[in-house]
Design goal:
The protein has helices at residues 2-31, 38-49, 104-114, 172-182, and strands at residues 52-59, 62-69, 72-79, 85-90, 118-125, 132-139, 142-149, 155-160, 186-193, 200-206, 211-217, 223-228. The protein has 229 residues and is an alpha+beta fold.
Length: 229
C-alpha cells in the first residue's frame, strides 16, 4: 500500500513538472515579440529620422542602410528582427545639393539690360566648381566677351576686343607661369577657350591650403578673374 502511494505521489509530481514546463514554453511563445517585416523597419527609419533612404541592404541578420538628411549622409546598422538601431554614423562624404542654374532666357535679359548690341554666342560651362555662362556680344565693330555667374547672374568679367593687340597666343607654359605668380601649387587642369578677341585660358591650381581657378587672356596674359576655393 505504501509503495502504491509513493508511486501515485511520484506520478502526480511528474505531471506537475511536465505541466509547468509546458506552461512556461507556451507563455514564452505567446509573449515573444513578433519580428518586424522589412517594410515596417524601412518605414520606422524614415519616420524616426526623416530624410531619404538611399540604399537598404540585407547582410546576415542585419540591415545596412544609407540615409540622406539635410545634405548629409548617414550609415545605419539595424537588427533585422527587432528593428533596433545598432549603429548610426555620419559618412565623411557629404551629399552635394543639386545646383540650379539660371535659365538662358534670364541671362539674355540681364545682358540686354546692361549692354548694347546682339548676342552672337552664349554657352554654359559647368566644367568648374563655379559654373558660368560664356557670352559674346557684338555691337558694330565692337566685340565684348562676358563671363556671367550661372547661379546668381553676376557679371564676373568683361573683355573688349582690341584690334591693336598682338595676335600671337601665349603658350600653356607661359600662362601657368603667370598663374603661379598668384598661387604657387600643382596645376590640376588648363583649358583654352577661343573667342573673337583672342581667347583665354582657365588654369586650375591646387595650393597647400587653398585652390583657385584663374582666367587669363590668351594674348595679353592679363588675369581676368580669380575664383578661390
Amino acid at each position: 500500500m505504501r509503495i502504491r502511494e509513493k508511486l501515485s505521489i511520484l506520478f502526480i509530481v511528474t505531471l506537475i513538472i511536465i505541466a509547468t514546463i509546458l506552461s512556461i514554453m507556451i507563455w514564452n511563445k505567446l509573449t515573444k515579440e513578433t519580428p518586424l517585416t522589412t517594410e515596417e523597419i524601412y518605414n520606422n527609419i524614415e519616420t524616426m529620422y526623416g530624410g531619404e533612404i538611399i540604399s537598404f541592404l540585407t547582410i546576415n541578420d542585419q540591415y545596412r542602410v544609407q540615409l540622406q538628411r539635410n545634405s548629409k549622409l548617414y550609415q545605419l546598422e539595424v537588427d533585422a528582427e527587432s528593428g533596433k538601431i545598432l549603429l548610426m554614423k555620419q559618412k565623411k562624404t557629404a551629399v552635394k545639393e543639386k545646383i540650379k542654374y539660371l535659365p538662358e532666357t534670364e541671362i539674355r535679359k540681364i545682358i540686354k539690360e546692361q549692354y548694347d548690341g546682339n548676342i552672337k554666342k552664349i554657352s554654359l560651362n559647368t566644367n568648374k566648381e563655379d559654373p558660368v555662362f560664356q557670352i559674346e556680344v557684338v555691337n558694330g565693330k565692337e566685340h565684348i566677351n562676358l563671363l556671367i555667374d550661372a547661379i546668381n547672374g553676376e557679371v564676373l568679367s568683361e573683355i573688349q576686343a582690341d584690334a591693336e593687340q598682338d595676335s600671337s597666343l601665349l603658350s600653356k607654359e607661359q600662362v601657368i607661369t603667370i598663374a603661379k605668380k598668384k598661387l604657387n601649387g600643382t596645376v590640376e587642369e588648363i583649358s583654352f577657350y577661343d573667342t573673337s578677341d583672342g581667347g583665354y585660358y582657365l588654369v586650375e591650381i591646387e595650393g597647400n591650403d587653398k585652390d583657385a581657378v584663374f582666367q587669363i587672356h590668351a594674348i595679353s596674359g592679363k588675369v581676368l578673374s580669380i575664383t578661390w576655393d
